[in-house]
Write a structure and sequence with these properties.
Blueprint (H helix, E strand, L loop, with lengths): L3 H7 L5 H23 L8 E7 L18 H8 L2 E3 L2 E2 L5 H10 L3 H4 L15 H7 L3 E5 L17 E3 L18 H15 L5 E7 L29 H5 L4 H30 L6 E6 L22 H4 L3 E4 L8 E3 L3 E2 L3 H8 L26 E5 L19 E5 L2 E6 L4 E6 L16 H19 L13 H10 L16
Parallel strand pairs: 1-6, 1-7, 2-9, 3-10, 4-5, 4-6
Antiparallel strand pairs: 2-8, 7-8, 11-12, 12-13, 13-14
Helix pairs in contact: 2-6, 7-9
Length: 492
């Protein structure tokens, strides 16, 4: 069987993609004209603002119930938004997660298994659809993981990925930038070019990613002495008592979240001043969470597991004028739902093959029919499959109602959790080997196996043109290291 790289080398560009985009352009024009005729002016957004909070756990924001971390700006936005409380990312690494966000597809369909791989041209991404519908598309990136060399810039007319911070040994530079620099870049762009008639603005903040290093005064905001510290029921503390040195990482992570919140607030204030905010559909989401010590084998990292600390993420939709503000939806939603939801709200056509489900934001549903959701990990790299789909040997999960089945083939482990009574996954229902949990696990295992067997990834390859530089930069950000801290090869 040929490897994915063999396919990448010999598969030519296919002309149908240009035909598909032309079709989307025509359909978008018709849909936009129909929407202008049949949608009240006050309800039709002129702009779409998508803010991505990298490595941000939902349970570390006040709007999701956190009581000790200061996030006033995101909490205020959530009060004006539709907040999704049971939202999961389908993959827990930056590039793969954002490609799922922009395509509405699982990784084993869009083809990007993890950071460092190239997005295939045949993926139709959200900025391409919005550009075809007449939006000016602009992106402001906080991390090298989303650099244009990985073909993530598809559809963007303006793609700002000017990094100014060094991370790691060996003099590696330009890997990322702080939230203030990202917000500054957005404001400079708007000052220079003004607000277009229709704007799609994608803003990516990277700060809560390790190493946690918030700038003053946020570096001293949380500690026992400051009076703001993790409560005893914090999942990392409830499972096992962390040494004080490791608890300090919880404080530093919290400082990064609060610092990022301040810069999000600065961005929102400026958009409000320019008259953009109340004419926009605003989406705030996170690409994945972070293991802060709940799983001692891989603490203070992500991508190794599909536990809730990795996959439970932030998602809120603010409609123009704050319509339906304060609505909390306990729907089984996923990151692949964002693209179809945005396009449904804008009355634009959804590309073929999208695997997500649109939420009706104008009439937020009280519930959905039963829904099965899937997720996958991206590490460790040394177990990757040489044919088929790279991530098959890594941890995967399936969600059905409150039940979550986790399978980690490389580790020889399977688990079953009931999240309604055990939200932090402390109790594996398969431990006692009782008949009912075993039967439920068998049913979910069959669904997961069928989903895995359905993998049809678009061809991809690890970015080789500037391969040594790519590897150095990803290593500097902790993306090419195993649990012991030694570097793995970037490909199987």
């Amino acid at each position: 069987m040929a490897t994915l790289n063999d396919y990448a080398r010999r598969t030519p560009k296919v002309p149908w993609r240009r035909v598909a985009l032309a079709g989307l352009l025509l359909a978008a024009a018709i849909a936009a004209a129909w929407g202008l005729l049949h949608t009240p002016r006050s309800a039709a957004p002129r702009h779409v603002i998508l803010i991505s909070l990298d490595t941000t756990r939902a349970d570390h924001l006040g709007c999701y119930g956190n009581t000790w971390i200061h996030t006033p700006h995101l909490d205020a936005l959530a009060a004006e938004s539709i907040l999704l409380t049971d939202y999961m990312t389908v993959v827990s690494t930056t590039l793969a997660s954002h490609v799922s966000l922009f395509t509405g597809k699982y990784p084993h369909t869009h083809g990007v298994p993890r950071n460092g791989f190239v997005v295939h041209d045949d993926n139709v991404m959200l900025p391409e659809v919005l550009k075809a519908a007449g939006f000016h598309t602009a992106a402001f990136i906080g991390s090298f993981a989303l650099d244009s060399r990985f073909n993530f810039a598809q559809g963007f007319e303006h793609f700002d990925a000017e990094f100014d911070m060094a991370r790691g040994a060996g003099g590696v530079d330009q890997n990322q930038r702080r939230a203030q620099a990202v917000t500054d870049a957005v404001l400079r762009h708007l000052d220079r070019h003004g607000v277009p008639d229709r704007l799609f603005l994608f803003v990516h903040y990277f700060d809560p990613h390790a190493p946690y290093d918030p700038p003053p005064p946020f570096d001293a905001l949380y500690s026992f002495g400051a009076g703001r510290a993790p409560p005893p029921d914090h999942p990392a503390l409830a499972r096992a008592r962390l040494p004080q040195a490791l608890q300090a990482r919880l404080w530093a992570y919290a400082g990064e979240v609060s610092y990022m919140d301040a810069q999000v607030g600065r961005l929102l204030d400026d958009l409000r001043r320019r008259g953009v905010l109340d004419q926009a559909l605003v989406i705030v989401t996170s690409d994945h969470g972070e293991n802060l010590g709940e799983n001692p084998g891989v603490p203070f990292d992500h991508g190794w597991t599909v536990y809730q600390c990795d996959v439970h993420a932030v998602a809120m939709f603010r409609l123009p004028g704050g319509q339906h503000g304060g609505t909390r939806l306990d729907l089984p939603a996923a990151s692949i739902d964002v693209l179809p939801t945005v396009l449904k709200y804008l009355a634009l056509p959804v590309p073929t093959g999208v695997e997500g489900r649109a939420i009706d934001l104008r009439r937020p549903p009280a519930q959905w029919p039963d829904r099965t959701r899937f997720g996958e990990a991206t590490k460790p790299w040394h177990v990757e499959a040489e044919s088929g789909w790279y991530n098959v040997p890594k941890a995967r999960c399936v969600r059905d109602g409150p039940f979550k089945y986790v399978c980690a083939p490389a580790a020889g482990r399977e688990q079953l959790f009931d999240l309604s009574s055990d939200p932090h996954e402390f109790r594996d229902l398969l431990g006692p080997l009782l008949p009912a949990p075993l039967a439920r696990a068998g049913e979910l295992r069959a669904r997961l196996d069928a989903w895995t067997a359905a993998a049809r990834p678009l061809p991809t390859h690890f970015e080789r043109q500037r391969g040594d530089e790519t590897i150095r930069r990803l290593k500097a950000m902790g993306y090419l290291e195993d649990q012991a801290g030694s570097a793995d090869e970037p490909e199987p």
